[in-house]
Design a protein that fits this description.
single chain; alpha/beta; 8-stranded mixed beta sheet; two-stranded antiparallel ribbon; about 40% helix; globular
């Protein structure tokens, strides 16, 4: 086992586990009854007490050193183009403002795809402080579990080992100075999503979904999860929104039409943009040359650039 492997699994910051979100003792019905009986100062005391109970067992949020703002890209379901969106969003942020330093963190431990999409291989070097140095391509600093295991090696770990690895990816990477860190989350609403949301301050979440009803059901859950842990949801990206035949130019809504827009209305959110179902997006991702980098003048790249503009517009001001 190499130095970086020992560091990932054993060294550095210890993981503080946390299961589901704590809830007030005694049930919600008794809380409602008490609230009806109290008013004024007593009601304020009850509110403070409830806040204390809700915060028990939650890890204290600590910023990632050198990172100004964290943007998470998430989906309730796999296979909707979340990682492709995360990669092209990071590149679009850099393309829109060359003065900004961008990082890309892949916390999908079981299925990391950032190394292939960003055309990166190899193990990260260690700094003098035993921190992993990100790999760099297209001007984006990248870190992924895929750099730490072989391409064909499955990560057959139980939950605690996965959570420990995520903690190391969050805390033991030397990012330098970044304006934005884009985090490619795994699909779902499980331990990894809660751990990331509760351990670091997140400026905003972007939810990716296709217009299909099945995908939208899980996207709805994903948005509600971030709201429960007080992470601002910046909006939805409707991916694979329409397919246009390259020969006859006829447009077909393979996964349905405007499903994400209807969900956005239900959640009182905005749609940040639509990404078409286009062969060039798949081809450029598979070859490690994302469309925003390799075809910057294409309609597909321009869609990602517009989404990046909308994301930045909705972010809160960075901390001083």
């Amino acid at each position: 086992m190499g130095t970086w492997q020992r560091l990932l699994l054993c060294g550095g910051v210890s993981f503080r586990g946390g299961g589901g979100i704590p809830v007030p003792l005694g049930g919600s019905r008794s809380l409602v009854v008490c609230r009806r009986q109290l008013s004024g100062a007593d009601s304020e005391i009850l509110k403070q007490r409830r806040t204390q109970i809700m915060s028990r067992g939650l890890p204290k949020q600590k910023p990632i050193e050198g990172v100004k703002q964290v943007i998470v890209v998430a989906s309730g379901k796999g296979g909707v183009g979340k990682s492709t969106t995360a990669v092209n969003l990071a590149l679009a942020l850099a393309a829109n403002d060359s003065s900004k330093a961008i990082g890309l963190l892949d916390v999908d431990v079981y299925g990391p795809s950032i190394p292939k999409m960003m055309n990166l291989k190899g193990n990260p070097e260690l700094s003098q402080n035993n921190l992993m140095r990100p790999l760099l391509n297209y001007g984006i600093a990248c870190m992924s579990m895929g750099f730490l295991v072989e391409d064909t090696t499955p990560v057959v770990w139980r939950g605690l080992m996965v959570m420990s690895a995520v903690e190391k990816l969050l805390r033991q990477v030397d990012w330098g100075q970044l304006d934005y860190l884009v985090v490619d989350m795994p699909p779902g609403t499980g331990d990894v999503q809660l751990s990331v949301s509760q351990n670091i301050p997140i400026s905003g979440a972007v939810i990716v979904s296709t217009p299909q009803d099945i995908a939208l059901m899980d996207a709805h859950k994903g948005a509600e999860m971030f709201r429960k842990v007080h992470v601002p949801v910046l909006g939805l990206v409707q991916n694979m929104s329409v397919f246009q035949c390259p020969k006859c130019k006829h447009k077909t809504h393979i996964f349905g039409a405007d499903g994400a827009r209807k969900l956005a209305q239900t959640l009182d959110l905005d749609v940040l943009g639509d990404i078409p179902l286009h062969p060039s997006i798949r081809e450029t991702s598979d070859t490690g040359q994302p469309v925003v980098f390799s075809q910057p003048d294409s309609d597909e790249a321009k869609a990602y650039l517009r989404i990046a503009t909308e994301v930045v517009r909705r972010l809160p001001p960075p901390p001083e």
